[in-house]
Amino acid sequence: MAYSPQSANKGSRDAAAANNTPPRKVYRSKMTDAYAMDDLGDEVASPAFDQYFEDDSMHMLNEINLLFDKIVQYYFTPTGLTPIQIPILITLLKDGPMTVSQLGKSLEIGSSNITPLCKRLEAMQLVTRTRDTYDQRVVFVSITDKARELLVWVNKEIRDKTGHDAPALTTEEQDVVRTGMQLLRTHLSNVVTSTEKQQQTSELNDKRRQRLEAARIATEQSESRRQERKKHGSITSQSKMNPMVTEVQDQDDE
To answer: Strand (E) positions, the chain?
Structure first.
């Protein structure tokens, strides 16, 4: 008979009734096809839980990204905005004016990309770029009234067209979503930080091994040259002491 949670639980209950002992719980892991049992009658946390959480989180994030892309396509694309320009405007709207480097760091966009993006938005009259009075190398970026009105209009369009079928979240629901996203961001940030540290440690170890290997090769080469010089010096000394050695050496060379 094939193994199943029901048969396992039934067998556990029968044995428990015969021995007058608490039944064992058997459960099927959501993360794997394996089964686990606990003699104390408590369900045991699967060792694969963290992996399941990671997989489930990645799956949900992927779905959210796909849905966001559709929203961009429906509401933002007609305005001429691209997916990478939208977070720039939203960040400036939320956090206010900032330098180009600060904006790039906030959105994790390289300096070689954030500058042309800001110039393009400036040409669309959605941002202004102003050089610092004291340091002309520093450029501040600010959102314009036109961009504010555009974002408000898009938000209104979404509410007007979907308000009946997709009512806005309540304040409590917004807090729950915000808290969950903050927790997820912190968790993923910790994962990235830990991974980067491990990679840096691995790279440092690789460089250390390379230096040690280079030093070993250099030492061997130096020792080989020293032995050659020592051997040559010994032959030269013998030649001076006994001219026949040179003659014999010459004959050997011939």
So the answer is: 25-28, 35-38, 98-99, 127-131, 139-143
